[in-house]
Amino acid sequence: MTKRILLIAAGTLAGVLLLLGGLILFAVLINYPRLPSLEALTDYRPKMPLRVYTSDAVLIGEFGEERRAFIPIDQVPAAMKQALLAAEDERFYQHGGIDYLGVLRAMAGNVLSGHSQSGASTITMQVARNFYLSNEKTFTRKFNEALLSFKIEHNLSKDQILELYINQIYLGQRAYGFSSAAQTYFGKELKDLTIAEYAMLAGLPKAPSAYNPIVNPKRAGLRQQYVLRRMHELHFIDDAQYEAALKEPLHLKRYHQEYAVHGEYVAEMVRQMMTERYKEATYTQGFKVYTTLSSQQQEDAYQALRQGLLDYDQRHGYRGPESFIDEAQLAGGKDEGLDDALAEIKDADDLVPAVVLSANANRIQVYIKGGERQDIGADGLKFARSALSDKNPPASRIRPGAIIRVKQNDKGWVVSQLPQVEGAFVAIDPQNGALRALVGGFDFNRNNFNHVTQAWRQPGSSFKPFIYSASLERGVTPATLINDAPLVIDPGQVGGQKWEPKNFDGKYAGMISVRNALTLSKNLVSIRILQAIGTDYAQQHITRFGFSPKQHPAYLTMALGAGSVTPLQMSEAYSVFANTGYRVHSYFVDRIEDARGKVLAKTAPEVAGQSAKRTLDARNAFVMTSIMQDVVRFGTAARANRALGRPDLAGKTGTTNDANDAWFAGFQPSLVAIAWVGFDQPRSLGGRETGGAAALPIWISFMSKALKNVPVYQYPVPEGVTPQTIEGEKGTFTEYFFNEFTQTNPELGLGSGGGGASQPLDEIKDQLF
After folding, report:
1. Angle at CA of residue 719, ends 714 and 725, nearest 5°
2. Do residue 243 and residue 392 come from a single domain?
3. Is the N end or the C end of the chain the one with fewer CB atoms within 10 Å?
4. Average pLDDT over residues 564-579
5. What are phi and psi of 295, to 5 degrees?
C-alpha cells in the first residue's frame, strides 16, 4: 500500500514537473523571440554629462542628469573587480547568467545572519534589469530577466558584460558607474583608491541610498566590512591587507566640495555657452570643454577673494545667528531631528551650519550634521563673544536652538558667519585675453550672480588712468603742474545739480605734477584735466580700451569714474596698458571635444603684437604704466610694494562716493588682475573701506602666488619717448615725455616749459587755470 502511494506521488510529481517544464519551455519559445535587441549593449552609448576642465585638465564642473565617466574594462583596477565580485557575484566568470549555487548560498547566508546581506541576482541579471526592465518584484519581470540574461551571455563576453555593469550602475549622489563614484565620494580617480575604498564602493549597488557613506556612514561601514570579509574569504586579499583595510579611516568629501578647484562661476559660463550652441544635447553627449583657467591660479583667486571678504566681515562685527530651530526638535536632542533642521541649510565650503545645544559666556556646544558634537571654547568665541551676552535681544543672541556658522582651523572649531558683502576677482593674460582665474562672488551656491561679468558698478578712481591717457595725447605730460584746489562745477557740466567735488581726504596740495596727482589719486586734478581736454574727446578716447560711450556720459563726473563698468571689462581695458597698446578680447574656452576626444571647436585668440589691433600708442601705454608704477611704489597702493617687493607692478585703487565700491586694478606684463568689493544693493562699505583697504589685499594675496616664479620685467623705453632728468622734492628722477610734447600743449591753456632736464620741478610753471 505504502509502495503504491509512493509510486502515485512520484508519478504525480513527475507529471507536475513535466507540465511545469512544458509551460516554462512554451513561455521561453513564446517570449524569447520577443526579447529586445541587444543593440543598446553592443553599441553602448550612455548618457554622458558635459564636463568642464581647467587648461591643465582639472575637472571644475559637470552638468547632466547622470554623472558618468566611462572607463574601459582593461583600465578598471583588479581590486575594484575583486571587490565587486565579492559583493555581488563571486561566480560571475563560471555561471551562464543565472547562478543556481549562488541562489542557495544567498538563502543560507541570509537565514543564518538574520537579515539580507547578499542577493541572488547575478551581475548579468542586473545588467538586463538596468538596461531593459524595471525594479518591480513580479514573476514576469524575473522570468524576462532570466531570459535576457541567457541572451546577453550568449552574445557578449564576460568582460563586455562586466564593463557595462561597471559603467551603468547607479551608485547614489547622482553618480552612475564606479569611475564617477570614485570622484563623487572620494575626489579621486578610480585607479588611485585603496582596498578599503574599493570595498566601500562595491557595497553600494545593493542599496545606494541605504549604504551611502555620506548620508549613512554607520550602515555603509557595516556593508564595507561585509565586502572586505568576502574578499578575504575568497582569497582576493591576504590577512595583512584585510586587517589594514578594516582599520583604515575613510576620507570622504566633506562640506560638499565637489571638485578640487572652485571654478563654479566659469563652469556655469561654459554651461550657458554650450546650451546656446548644442541645446539639450549639451547634457547627454559627453562634451568636454577645456577652459583657459590655470587650476592653481583659479584656486588661489578663490581663496584670496574669500579670505578678503571674511576679513572685511570680521572688521565689522558679528551680526548674530542665522535662524533658530523649533524647540521640539531641540528638546528631543536626537541626531535625526537635528539633521532635519539642518538639511535645507547649505554648507558654504568650510563654513558649515550648526545648532547650538548649550551656551554660556565662555563655552558653547554645537551639533554639526552627521552626528558630530563639538565644544567651542574662549578662543573660538572671540569673534562672536558679544552675541553671548544676555543683554542682547533673543533674535541676535547665541543661545540653545540658534543656527550659526562654524569653521574648523588648525586650533579647532571657531564661530564665523556668512559675509553679506560681495566681491569679484578676475585675472587675464593681457597678451591674448585668456582668462586665468575668475571668481564671481563669495559663494556660488548662495548667490550665482556673476559679479565679474554681470555687475555694472562705478569704477571710481580706478577709471582715472583712462582720462590721464587721453590727456597725454593732447599734450599733457607727467611733469605738467595742475592746481589741486577746490572747484565749483556748473550744473550743465555734470548733467545735474551744482557740484563741489572734494579729494578723498579733504586736503589739497596746490600745484602738483600729473604724475603725483595720479599717484595720490587727487580728484580735483582729474577734473581739471578733463575740463582741459574736453569730455567729448575723453569719451571717444576711452573706446580704445573697449568702453562704450553709453556707459560713460560726457560729463565731468567721468573724471572720477561715475560711469558703469564690469570687472571683466576693466581687465580688458587695463590689458591695453600691460601689452603696450593692443586691444585683446577676453575668452574662457580653449577647445570643445566630443566624448571620444575629437576637437569640435578651438579658440584662435588675437594676440598682442600679432593679430590684435593696436588702439593705443605704445608711448602712451609706457608713460601711463610708469605713472601707475608709482601708485604701487609710493601712492595709494604702496601696500602692494611692501608686500611683494617687485618694481614691475602697476595699478590703481578705486573708491566711489560713500565707499559703495572698492577696487584695485593692477598688472604685470604677464597678468592683469582686478579685485572689486561691494554690496549687491549699493551702500557704504564703511568710512575706511577704500580700494586700498578692502580690494588691494585680495589682489596682493593672489599676485604673491601667481608671480612667485615670474622674473621681474624691465619695461623698455619705446621709440619716440624722451627721458629727462627732473629735480623733485626727494631728489632727481627720470621723467618721460613724448618727443613732440617735451612741453605742454599751449592750446590747452597750459603755459610753456614742460619740464626740461635743467629745470627743477617746483619751478615748472605749467598749470591749469
Report:
1. 70
2. no
3. N
4. 99
5. -60, -40
**Amino acid, single-letter form, for residue 441:** G
Residues 595 and 684 in one domain: yes
436 falls within a domain:
yes
State the DSSP code for 694. I
Residue 585 covered by a domain: yes
Could you tell me the end-to-end alpha-carbon distance of the chain, in angstroms, rounded to an integer?
136
473 assigned to active site: no
- 55, 294, 295, 461: which is the annotated catalytic residue? 461
Q: Could you tell me the pTM of the whole model?
A: 0.84
Among 416, 433, 466, which residue terminates a domain?
416
Same domain, 286 and 329: no
- pLDDT of 128 reads 82
Q: How far apart are CA 97 and CA 392, in angstroms?
A: 70
Query: Is the domain of 267 the same as that of 191?
Result: no
Note whether 16 and 144 are same-domain residues. no
Residue 61: inside a domain? no
In sequence order, which residues have a C-beta less than 8 Å from that of residue 746 and are 6 or more positions away? 752
What CA–CA distance (Å, rounded) separates 533 from 530?
A: 5
Q: So what's the pLDDT on residue 163?
A: 94
H or E segment and range at residue 202:
helix 195-202
> Does residue 111 sit in the same domain as residue 155?
yes
Domain match, 602 and 688 both: yes
Q: Which of 187, 214, 247 is the last residue of a domain?
A: 247
Helix (H, G, I), strand (E, B) or coil at 506: coil
Q: Please give, one letter per residue, the 3-state secondary structure of 340-382.
A: HHHCCCCCECCEEEEEEEEECCCCEEEEECCCEEEEECCHHHC
pLDDT of residue 297 exceeding 60: yes
Residue 134, pLDDT score: 54
Q: What is the dihedral of CA 155, 159, 163, 164, to 10 degrees?
A: 20
Q: Kindly indicate the confidence band of residue 767, based on its pLDDT and cuts at 50, 70 and 90.
A: very low
- Determine which one of 66, 88, 264, 689 is catalytic: 88
Question: 50 and 277 in contact (C-beta within 8 Å)?
Answer: no
Yes or no: say if 571 and 676 are a contact pair by the CB < 8 Å rule.
no
Residue 569 in any domain: the answer is yes
Residue 152 CB partners (closer than 8 Å, separation 6+)? 38, 41, 97, 124, 127, 128, 161
What domain range includes position 751?
721-763
The H-assigned helical ranges of 263-334 are 264-278, 295-315, 327-332
Helix (H, G, I), strand (E, B) or coil at 561: coil
Q: Do 514 and 468 meet the contact criterion of CB atoms below 8 Å apart?
A: yes
Q: What's the domain count of the chain?
A: 5
Instruction: Name residue 568's amino acid.
Output: L
Q: Give the pLDDT confidence score for residue 337 in this predicted structure.
A: 83
Cα separation of 417 and 404, whole Å?
A: 7
Helices 123-132 & 158-168, crossing angle to 10 degrees?
60
**Of 226 and 140, more confident:** 226
Query: Is residue 703 very low, low, confident or very high in pLDDT (cuts 50, 70, 90)?
Result: very high
C-alpha span between 270 and 258 (Å, rounded): 17
Question: At residue 470, does pLDDT exceed 60?
Answer: yes
The radius of gyration of the chain's CA atoms, rounded to the nearest angstrom, is 35
Residue 738, number of CB atoms within 10 A of its CB:
18
Q: What are phi and psi of 58, to 5 degrees?
A: -100, 125
pLDDT per residue over 726-762, tens digit each?
Answer: 887 677 889 999 999 877 666 666 533 333 332 333 3
CATH number of the domain enclosing 351: 2.40.50.140
Residue 648 pLDDT > 90, yes or no? yes
Q: Residue 765 above 60 pLDDT?
A: no
- Does residue 461 have an active-site annotation? yes
171 and 301 co-located in one domain: no
